[in-house]
Design brief:
Elements: E1 3-9, E2 12-19, E3 22-25, H1 26-30, H2 38-43, H3 45-55, E4 64-65, E5 70-72, E6 81-84, H4 89-98, E7 116-119, E8 124-125, E9 140-141, E10 144-150, E11 166-173, E12 176-177, H5 196-200, E13 206-214, E14 225-230, E15 233-239, H6 247-255, E16 265-267, E17 287-292, E18 296-301
Parallel strand pairs: 6-16, 8-13
Antiparallel strand pairs: 1-2, 1-5, 2-3, 3-4, 6-7, 9-12, 10-11, 10-16, 11-13, 14-15, 14-17, 17-18
Length: 303
């Protein structure tokens, strides 16, 4: 059993396999020099996973202790980041309440499909990286998300076979500058009111990591405990099984209009407990820690 990571080395970022408490270079471990980065591994996922799974049973070499390795985001620059909006009922209800509006019915009852926005791939940062918020936003919010990592090119998938393209999962934080969502001096009824770039795609807005846990090692991705703390205060405490649209529904829907490629990331939504629900937001010095069962933990300090 292994987890797929990116580590900083003297030769630059390298794909690494975390086996137990040691980190091993993927190219050395598998004998495949082409596996320089995690994207290279995902581009050849079926063969790479088979080789890594076999090698992880009796790894060659001593490796490096995880505690001594410099972990970067597992995919420092993913091709595309799809983000599901309003995909947990309790989160949708807290956001409607904060806006002074009554909750809407389950989208399934209205015949609706999942909806997404895109996040800037350059916004990805790894665990331990400081995120600069001072001077940018006075209403910086947190959002724990289970992130799906695509490992096979796919188009026109069905709900029944959608999960076949998944390589693995990682932890994500969809940091959101709530005060930059609505554009000033634009009527609320205008279709051009929202500014998704400044709201969701600013520098450092997508902490991700600490590694990718292969789908083969996840018992049930629809039943993973999800927790987020701000400093030591537990803010979000939920489970991936509480999504409105399942991961299969999300993946299938995206693939009807867009070809999915290895390395694409799908952020699957956040549960209740975000700052906007109570009007409390992040400030400089706050530490946001995210933990998803069977995957791992990431932590980032706001500065």
């Amino acid at each position: 059993m292994y987890k797929l990571a990116t580590v900083q080395t003297a030769q630059g970022p390298r794909a690494a396999a975390v086996i137990g408490d040691r980190v091993h270079d993927v190219a050395d471990l598998t004998g495949q020099a082409k596996y320089v980065g995690v994207q290279d591994v995902l581009n050849d996922w079926d063969n790479a996973h088979k080789a890594l799974a076999a090698a992880s049973k009796s790894p060659k070499g001593q490796g490096t202790p995880v505690a001594q390795a410099k972990l970067l985001a597992p995919l420092p620059l993913p091709p595309v980041i799809f983000c599901a909006g309003a995909n947990y009922k309790d989160h949708s209800e807290e956001m409607w309440k904060a806006a002074g509006r009554p909750p809407e019915p389950d989208p399934h009852e209205l015949g609706l499909k999942p909806w997404f926005f895109l996040k800037n791939p350059h916004a990805v940062v790894g665990t331990g990286v400081d995120v600069e918020i001072s001077g940018y936003s006075k209403k910086m919010d947190w959002e724990i998300e289970l992130a799906v990592i695509v490992g096979r090119k796919a188009r026109n998938l069905t709900v029944e076979n959608a999960m076949s393209c998944v390589a693995g999962y990682t932890c994500g934080n969809d940091l959101s500058a709530r005060d930059h969502g609505p554009r000033d001096n634009v009527p609320d009824t205008s279709p051009f009111k929202a500014d998704w770039i400044r709201h969701k795609s600013f520098e450092g807005s997508c902490p991700m990591g600490p590694w990718i846990t292969p789908a083969a090692y996840i018992r049930n991705p629809e039943d993973l405990a999800m927790k987020l703390w701000v400093n030591d205060d537990l803010k979000q405490n939920s489970n991936s099984g509480k999504m409105i649209f399942t991961m299969a529904e999300q993946i299938a829907h995206i693939s009807t209009g867009i070809t999915l490629y290895p390395g694409d990331v799908i952020m699957t939504g956040t549960p209740a407990g975000v700052g906007a629900g109570k009007g409390t937001f992040l400030k400089s010095g706050d530490v946001v820690k995210i933990e998803i069962a069977e995957i791992g933990t990431i932590s980032n300090r706001m500065v």
